[in-house]
Amino acid sequence: MLISCVVYNGDREQADIPLEEIPAYLHAPDNFVWVALQDASEDELRAMQKQFGLHELAVEDVFNEVQRPKVEEYDEHLFVYLQVPAYHGEEVHIGRISIFVGPNFVLSVRQNCEQALLGVRARAEREPHLLKYGSVYVMYALSDAVVDRFFPVVDILDDELEKLEIAMFHNQETRKNMERFYDVKYKVNVLRHALLPLADGFSKLYGGRVPALVDGAENYFRDVHDHIMLLNSQLDAMRDTIATAIQVNLSLITIDHGEVNKKLAAWGAILVVTTIFTGIWGMNFTYMPELHWRFGYPMALLIMAGCAIYLYRRFKKADWL
Amino acid sequence: MLISCVVYNGDREQADIPLEEIPAYLHAPDNFVWVALQDASEDELRAMQKQFGLHELAVEDVFNEVQRPKVEEYDEHLFVYLQVPAYHGEEVHIGRISIFVGPNFVLSVRQNCEQALLGVRARAEREPHLLKYGSVYVMYALSDAVVDRFFPVVDILDDELEKLEIAMFHNQETRKNMERFYDVKYKVNVLRHALLPLADGFSKLYGGRVPALVDGAENYFRDVHDHIMLLNSQLDAMRDTIATAIQVNLSLITIDHGEVNKKLAAWGAILVVTTIFTGIWGMNFTYMPELHWRFGYPMALLIMAGCAIYLYRRFKKADWL
Amino acid sequence: MLISCVVYNGDREQADIPLEEIPAYLHAPDNFVWVALQDASEDELRAMQKQFGLHELAVEDVFNEVQRPKVEEYDEHLFVYLQVPAYHGEEVHIGRISIFVGPNFVLSVRQNCEQALLGVRARAEREPHLLKYGSVYVMYALSDAVVDRFFPVVDILDDELEKLEIAMFHNQETRKNMERFYDVKYKVNVLRHALLPLADGFSKLYGGRVPALVDGAENYFRDVHDHIMLLNSQLDAMRDTIATAIQVNLSLITIDHGEVNKKLAAWGAILVVTTIFTGIWGMNFTYMPELHWRFGYPMALLIMAGCAIYLYRRFKKADWL
Amino acid sequence: MLISCVVYNGDREQADIPLEEIPAYLHAPDNFVWVALQDASEDELRAMQKQFGLHELAVEDVFNEVQRPKVEEYDEHLFVYLQVPAYHGEEVHIGRISIFVGPNFVLSVRQNCEQALLGVRARAEREPHLLKYGSVYVMYALSDAVVDRFFPVVDILDDELEKLEIAMFHNQETRKNMERFYDVKYKVNVLRHALLPLADGFSKLYGGRVPALVDGAENYFRDVHDHIMLLNSQLDAMRDTIATAIQVNLSLITIDHGEVNKKLAAWGAILVVTTIFTGIWGMNFTYMPELHWRFGYPMALLIMAGCAIYLYRRFKKADWL
Amino acid sequence: MLISCVVYNGDREQADIPLEEIPAYLHAPDNFVWVALQDASEDELRAMQKQFGLHELAVEDVFNEVQRPKVEEYDEHLFVYLQVPAYHGEEVHIGRISIFVGPNFVLSVRQNCEQALLGVRARAEREPHLLKYGSVYVMYALSDAVVDRFFPVVDILDDELEKLEIAMFHNQETRKNMERFYDVKYKVNVLRHALLPLADGFSKLYGGRVPALVDGAENYFRDVHDHIMLLNSQLDAMRDTIATAIQVNLSLITIDHGEVNKKLAAWGAILVVTTIFTGIWGMNFTYMPELHWRFGYPMALLIMAGCAIYLYRRFKKADWL
Q1: Where does the chain cross the membrane (chains A, B, C, D, E) (predicted)?
Q2: b/e for E215-234, b at 16 or more Cβ within 10 A?
Q3: Do domains D1-133 and D254-317 have the same CATH topology?
Q4: Lowest mean pLDDT among B17-26, B76-85, D5-14
């Protein structure tokens, strides 16, 4: 589905044009065309492939649902494939954006991805001086927008993690907590797999030999790379935290067991000692003088209670109760 | 055992020929011959070695059962050794495919591998424009087909893992679950060892200096490399998940023990308190007035039941029961 | 907020000047100007951007609160972004310092950072021979001062860790201890994320190709890099220690449980044996001669006490009590 | 102790010669001499050092018992130091082989190593065409033979590991099993330390700049390197397996404890309930009608047995027994 | 404190000279001077700095107590900073040695380090042919001597570790054992941090571009590097062993608990069964014929003993006792 088709002319003004007029603009030296598709059909994409001379392998990647994010250089164009995360209720949803960039065109294809990226078009209007970098600026702005979408998702996970830590140190809902740690870890991994390959990909767009298209705009791609590295280091910190938390949690649970055990043992001791006394005075010996005392029974109860209280206090002092 | 011997001529048409006619076709500049063997005998392979001038070390590798997958450049030809996974019931079965590629020939040897790769031949007919890359195209198509065989196997393991996670969080069959986690981990490792060395091998076929044969077809090998990297990252995620799961599992088991312990302790307390009462009224003191009351016995039973019910409720409230 | 604006002239003397006079000094070949801002407003920074021709991306980084430390080379200037740790009570507080360095200017912006860095100005007076390196010397001195701020923070953490280890081996406050290990680990990670990217950044300022500005002063940046590496290796050692400590802690807790269990079991045995005797002599058999002995009861008590003492001694010897 | 001294002449025939005649053969362009020593004395080696101009540091390494395997290039010769594993009963024994290779000589010194390597001499006769590579062929053949000695040792360890896994999942001899896992891990580490440095060493003998001596024979050293990598990946897989197994084992033991606990608790409950009934009917209330019933006693026994059976069944159903 | 000041002249003879005469010898082309200081005062070192033109940063490093070992190239000289371990009772003590090497001088400064390194001077006399490498030989000999000091320390730790392993598998002093594992781990880390940076430092003195001073002596520094790598691999093996041991230890403790539990449970069962019998015969039913049998009591005791013995045997057989 076509979202927009814009031409940026030599003076860097922009105008919407119908798809059919693209060829008319392609050959003017300073022009470039940006075609934005959403959930493109194979036909639409094939038409674009013919129009812009896109490489077969890159076009196939657009339709491939399981894919690693990548920045690839082909003879005629660059191909960038990005994953965009979004929180849908409790789930992290991953959309896909493919960008083809040639000297005079940009083709962006959004798939399974609800978020409009038109903010980029507005930005292009706000920063006309950046349009001097040509079509590659649109790719930069799209990549930058996509990478920025990761920050709020990472923040939500970070908050979740903080809540889990607090619950952990208060031994609340230990079982449920484990499940949620596991879930956060899973989501962190999903985000990492969407980001890690990009760090490598964008690092090829600045420093050393860069594709001719990118020439002069390296600082902008270094900036995107830097954001990716920041996200990566945040995710790494979270992974590390979760790993430690899982181990600490086991220790806390074990400590808790130990405390429960001591409490039980203390009560057990108190009760068993009482039982021994009842056992002794329940014996059937003929000559047990205290059994015939007038106040033998209350004395017995007092002795039992006394022992119990004495033990209770000792255990209390030893912090077992 | 010979499966097929095909010649691709200058116009890229293909024709089956008998082995003996190979030399006749080898010297035409645009021709190349593809010989496909299955479970080749040493004699068959030696004949091919003489025919195509294959390197001794590469030929020996074909028969070596324990081998790392590899992509090796020899003076006269490339040698690719791949492992192909397949699910046989519960087991992952590993077949082997060796490919020799020279400027005018391809020799593929399938060993211990049930899956026919003739899909490749059909593909060559479907994509005649790719045959312009010559013999190396067949190697690409074979490699691509082999790597694609990994995806369904990885998917089955992923499903298995998901089932194990659900069982884990429901504390079902903990012991059996551990065994299956262990088994999945083993299979993941088998696949990783079949893939990891290939990532390295195929990365030498694009970017930087590539063997002359591959020249021009780098994008295709980058695509294969990309698939390998995707599989690797999926397998790494699974390894990570399993490692976490094993730790989480231990915590869950320990939590479970704690819950069982509390339950037992609570019941124990209820029973022991009851025992103390029976002990007290079982004592043989002469002066125990309540023993002689008319309703002393039912009162005793009521007191015991009352204490038991009271304790039961307290434990229930504290979530021990 | 402007802190100071100093000009260093050809003879390397320094003088405070008002901001408006900067342009007058910028074009003298041997002069350079150092402008120091604190918690700069956007307006202040934009004015400086215009004055010194700072790159848009670098200026944006100054205001970005979540950022990785970095050393970046732009066409016209270097940009260094550092994080400064400080202990506020129990918390590690992270301030930020951004430094822009061109051939004839230094702009330092301190944000959210209480510590004055004017020590650097005094140092410049003490080491006038180093001013021969020009503006880059100020950047070096600032970086050096920032990195030196890490040492006392790391030392405090190290002391804390040592205290926790001692507490751990004495099984004191196990639960609280875990929480504090976790907290130290968290702080170590915060420091690492403030340092790790710098190791990479400063390594680009010595050895191999260095930015023209830095030329001749490489040894000084190698020294800063060396301090960063020292801090990193200290933090790594602490991470490793904490990881081991958490595992050892679990073992110690488990050992402790085992000891408690043995103690309980021993007491349990002593009590239960006593109970058996009272049970036996509580039976109602008609013919139990000892029940009618004159000293049957004291004998019974002696036997019970004897058994208890015997068991107590055995358990004592086996180190269960 | 001299084992053999062989000269290979221009036509690649070989002949035993006495040590004294070596100089006569050294200067013929196509000749090379192979001297094989076993448990060489310092004197023997010093004589060889003078004869062939061996570097002092390399000669010292021969006598150094604790040493990392290595492949070193000196100005005048290559030096290869290898470790050879062998199973002596339950122990892995490590022998040492040092090889010096110059353009016209090979000196091999076997130390603390029972296995004869004369297979290499026979191989040289079987593969005379490979002798065209000169003295370096002998080094290759020796290295190849040494690396091949690792395979059976690794296989034995692999079998041992498999047996331990089976025992682990059947909870047999848990304590002994741990000890054997630990032992296998130790042996795996010994082998790894004998192999890892070689991977690095042999990788310098093919690809990129190789020592002049090796020129042309790179494929053979790549093959050795490949075997080393295969062994390494097998050992890595074993390490990984053992690490997982140790963790899984702890879980299995903990699960086992849980099962034992449940079983005990169930029996405990059955017994304690019985005890309560005996306690109740052991009380001394005057008015306890059932005590005087004709069949009160058998009824009591039946009730107790009934309760016990009922509980037994419930626990059985809940899988606690 | 000056230890010695030696001049090595063109014929490589050596002679002690007073400090004041150094300048006289510095300009002879073949001479070099070795000044050895111990616990140098700042004044002494400043004098040397002036004499030999040492770089400010290197001189500061000498007095810096917390420092990473390093090998640094300055314009005028090399600077090597080493840490020397020594066992003082149970503690590992770390001394420091700084070496400055220029074309015609060596300055060594020993700090906090009791071990004399004069062995190096004697070695120089024993190996006059090595003095052809000039001042750098002294640096080599000092470095070699320092690295050799690590071996006995590592050996002591290795022995300690072996003793701990044996104790671990015999479940002796589990708590103390943990503390000692922790202590060994700590010492291993101290040694690693003293060695790891050196591996990197010395690798820059051979292979690839080396400092001019070192030219020709690369093999000697490769040898030192090799010793460092050997030590590193030993320390890594120990780290790995300790990590495994800590995990195995937890399993062993848990297994031990399980065994104790089973033993307790078995005794518990025996005692409780006995209690039930005494409970039954302690009931007050009117019609309990066996109570009135002549040998009811001994029969009861026999039954109880019989049950106890039967259970004892069953538990013995099941290996619970």
Answers
A1: 264-283, 295-312
A2: eebbbbbbbbbbbbbbbbbb
A3: no
A4: D5-14
Q: At residue D29, does pLDDT exceed 80?
A: no
Kindly list the domain boundaries of chain C, sorted by start residue.
Answer: 1-133, 254-317
> Which of the residue ranges A171-180, D75-84, D181-190, D297-306 would you say has the lowest mean pLDDT?
A171-180
Say whether C252 and E189 touch across the interface (CB within 8 A).
no
Q: Which CATH class is domain C1-133?
A: alpha beta
Q: Which has the closest alpha carbon to B97: B148, B158, B157?
A: B148
B59-63, D12-16, D161-165, E22-26: the lowest-pLDDT one: D12-16
Give E-chain residues touching C165 at CB under 8 angstroms: 182
Q: What 3-state DSSP class applies to B205?
A: coil
Distance of CA E289 to the CA centre of its chain: 77
| Contact criterion met (CB < 8 Å) for A288 and C281 | no
Does the pLDDT of residue C259 top 90, yes or no?
Answer: no
Number of residues that make up chain D: 321
Q: For the residues D180-204, what does the mean pLDDT come to?
A: 93
Interface B–D counts its CB contacts (< 8 A) at: 123
CATH architecture observed for domain D254-317:
Up-down Bundle (1.20)
Question: Does an H or E element contain D14, and which?
Answer: strand D14-16
State residue B305's pLDDT score.
Answer: 95
E237 with D193: Cβ contact below 8 A:
yes
Q: What is the pLDDT of residues D127-159, one digit of tens each?
A: 888 888 889 999 999 999 999 999 999 999 999
Tokens matching residue C264: 């309980």
Q: What is the distance between the alpha carbons of residues E154 and E149, in angstroms, rounded to a whole number? A: 9
Give residue for tokens 């890099």. C225
Task: Give the count of alpha carbons within 13 A of E268, CB side only.
Answer: 20
D57 or A173, higher pLDDT: D57
Touching subunits for chain E (3+ Cβ pairs under 8 A): C, D
Which one has a higher pLDDT value, A314 or C65?
Answer: A314
Tell me what ipTM this predicted complex has: 0.87
Q: What is the pLDDT of residues C161-175, one digit of tens each?
A: 999 999 999 878 888
Residues of C in contact with E185 (CB under 8 A): 244
pLDDT of C28 reads: 76
CB A279 within 8 Å of CB A260? no
Distance CA D283, CA D300 (A): 14
Q: Smallest CA–CA separation between D35 and chain E, in Å?
A: 25
Pairwise CA distance, residues A214 & A221, whole Å: 9
Extract the tokens encoding A111.
């798939």
Convert the pLDDT of each residue in C105-148 to its tens digit.
999 999 888 777 768 888 887 888 888 888 999 999 999 999 99
Q: Concatenated DSSP letters for C93-162?
A: EEEEEEEEEETTEEEEEEES-----THHHHHHHH-GGGGGGTHHHHHHHHHHHHHHHHHHHHHHHHHHHH
| Three-state SS at C6 | strand
Each as own residue / partner, the long-range contacts of residues D233-239 (CB below 8 Å, 24 or more positions apart, any chain) are D233/B68, D233/B193, D233/B196, D233/B197, D234/D154, D234/D158, D235/D154, D235/D188, D235/D191, D235/D192, D235/D195, D237/B189, D237/B193, D238/D154, D238/D157, D238/D158, D238/D161, D238/D184, D238/D188, D239/D185, D239/D188, D239/D189, D239/D192
How far apart CA D269 and CA B255 sit, in angstroms, is: 22
Asked if D284 has any chain E CB less than 8 Å from its own CB, the reply is yes
Instruction: Measure the CA–CA gap between A194 and A83, rounded to whole angstroms.
Output: 6
Sheet containing D91-102: which strands, arranged edge to edge? D14-16, D2-8, D32-38, D105-111, D91-102, D78-88, D70-73
d(CA D169, CA C145): 58
Contact status of A251 with chain B (Cβ, < 8 Å)? no
Angstrom distance (rounded) from CA C88 to CA C135: 33
Q: Tokens 């003492």 identify what position?
A: C309
pTM, rounded to two decimals: 0.90
Which CA distances in Å does C262 have to A268, C256, E129? 15, 10, 70
